[in-house]
Write a structure and sequence with these properties.
With 113 residues, this protein is α/β, with parallel strands linked by helices. It is built from 5 helices and 7 strands; from the N terminus they run αβαβαββαβαββ.
Length: 113
């Protein structure tokens, strides 16, 4: 069990480049920003310009994400975005990035519904 967890940790780490908030914010207008949290969390507040593709339905909805444009992922902390990155990598996506500390520490512009 512990070996599997260690394997998953490194698998998630290899699947995407980790970006600080400053690095994430730098190119946000040129990429696809995807929030993998569930809809109620997304509606309560999300990074301005992000699309919501919840992790619970990610496998079926990831076809909505273009492969030719970099993908920036985030969730509340960072565990779900890591799993989403692994799914994207297995599906052939190559330009995958994750927000280092997740939405909980985001200081940039947000939108609430």
């Amino acid at each position: 069990m512990i070996g599997y967890e260690v394997y998953q940790h490194f698998n998630r780490k290899r699947a995407a480049v980790i970006l600080t908030e400053e690095e994430f914010r730098e190119n946000m207008r040129k990429v696809q920003v995807i929030d993998v949290r569930e809809k109620p969390e997304f509606d309560a507040g999300h990074i301005l310009g992000a699309r919501n593709i919840p992790y619970s339905g990610f496998k079926t909805r990831m076809i909505e994400i273009r492969k030719d444009i970099p993908v920036y992922l985030y969730d509340q902390k960072k565990s779900m975005s890591g799993r989403a990155a692994v799914k994207l990598r297995k599906a052939g996506y190559t330009k995958i990035y994750r927000l280092k500390d997740g939405y909980q520490n985001w200081n940039g512009k947000i939108k609430k519904k």
